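[job 4471] stage=fold_predict status=RUNNING
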Amino acid sequence: MSNQKKKKMTPIQQEYHSFAKTREPRRPVLLNVIKAFLVGGTICLIGQFVQEFFLWNFNFTEKTAGEPTVAVMIFLAVTLTALGVYDHIAQWAGAGTAVPVTGFANSIAAAAIEHRSEGLVLGVGANMFKLAGSVIVFGVFAAFVIALIKTTLALPGGP
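[job 4471] inference complete, writing structure tokens
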């Protein structure tokens, strides 16, 4: 708590705050980091296996194997979310499940599943992108700015 807020507290409130702080359980930060690393690394390893599968069995190049790999990882994340497994993994591993593609797919699928009883349009459609909408908007805007910079630099006479 900031010193500014402590100044506004009465002595009894400050005493209670100190008491509560001593009773608060310690968070196992190192253990949480290890769990996140292991689960995030496992998700990435599965993605690498999927990409290698497309490279070896369908003669894709590394460039062309990316899209089907992402599609498979999204499908797996949405399926595990629908079965309730992804949430249990996320509860245990924390930030390790926020690997960009699978975490994003989970956030959209979980919101859609949660609001399906309200109907397809007002439930699923209206609520599916509440959490992920800001990520989509930022991603589109960032891609636009980067493309604008790249195009400006590629023009003759550009910097």
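[job 4471] summary: The two ends are 48 Å apart (CA to CA).
[job 4471] exit 0
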